[in-house]
Amino acid sequence: MQYENVTPALFINRPNRFIANVSIDGTTETVHVKNTGRCKELLLPGAEVYLTEPNSKGRKTRFDLIAVRKDNGLLINIDSQAPNKVVSEWLNTQGFTKVVPEYTYGNSRIDFYMEHSGGKLTDKYLMEVKGCTLERDGIGYFPDAPTQRGTKHLRELIKAAQVGCHAYCAFVIQMDGITEVRPNTDTDPDFAAAFEEAKHSGVHILFLPCHVEPDSLKIISNYSTNEVFV
């Protein structure tokens, strides 16, 4: 996915989870943060950040904060809407005959429902997408804040797998060089427990490495369709 009208800035502070103050060429600007997670290890005073200017009507802020360069030099896309967008682009290259976003299953809204038809048979797939922005020592972790919603989705995927649906939890790794995501047990032990249960209940855990630029995010997975979607 590609962003337009990208502007570099320096992070100042974050008064609440929705907005931040940044410096653009010495001028302070209040911007929308496109991630309601904590991002405490990323959004530090003086950090290099990147903004996009949507130019949409009725906005309270001119810019959206979409990426930040960590103190170790790693550029991380923190746009929480980006993972679903890049997965949608990627799924459309994977040979499915149907891809339906925001699919209602059980008591949840699952990110994608897919079908692959071959002969008289139609394989059905469900995929929940999670964005990973937390990195420690070369490993990705999820979540960076407690997520009851994420745990609920894993429980729904477990039920789907038990009735024969191909169920996937896909982690979009919103930074370069990271290929694995582990549950952040200290932050959310309930999600971690559901993650382990899902793995042993037939839910496929999929890691999708990405390449990040200030103005783009792209999945660079080398998986083939036959390797991933069984």
Record keyword descriptors for this entry:
single chain; 230 residues; alpha+beta; OB fold (Dihydrolipoamide Acetyltransferase, E2P); Trna Endonuclease, Chain: A, domain 1; five-stranded mixed β-barrel; 4 helices; 15 strands; globular
Tell me the strand percentage band.
35-45%
Shape: globular
Task: Write the H/E string, N to C.
Answer: EEEEEEHEEEEEHEEHEEH
How far the N terminus sits from the C terminus, by CA atoms, comes to 26 Å
CATH class of the largest domain: Alpha Beta
Kindly state the mean pLDDT as a whole number? Answer: 93
Number of domains: 2
Q: Tell me about the biggest sheet?
A: 6 strands, mixed
Low-confidence stretches: none
Number-wise, the strands total 15
Q: Any idea of the CATH topology of the largest domain? A: Trna Endonuclease, Chain: A, domain 1
Structural class: alpha+beta
Q: Nearest-angstrom radius of gyration?
A: 18 Å
Biggest sheet strand order reads: 7-8-9-12-14-15
Helical segment tally?
Answer: 4
The helical percent reads 10-25%
CATH architecture of the largest domain: 3-Layer(aba) Sandwich
Task: Please describe what this structure looks like.
With 230 residues, the protein is an alpha+beta fold. The chain has two domains: 6-71, Beta Barrel (OB fold (Dihydrolipoamide Acetyltransferase, E2P)); 82-228, Trna Endonuclease, Chain: A, domain 1. It has four helices and 15 strands. The strands form three sheets. Strands 7-8-9-12-14-15 form a six-stranded mixed β-sheet, sandwiched between helices. A hairpin with a 5-residue loop joins strand 5 and strand 6. The radius of gyration is 18 Å and the shape is globular. The two termini are 26 Å apart. The mean pLDDT is 93.
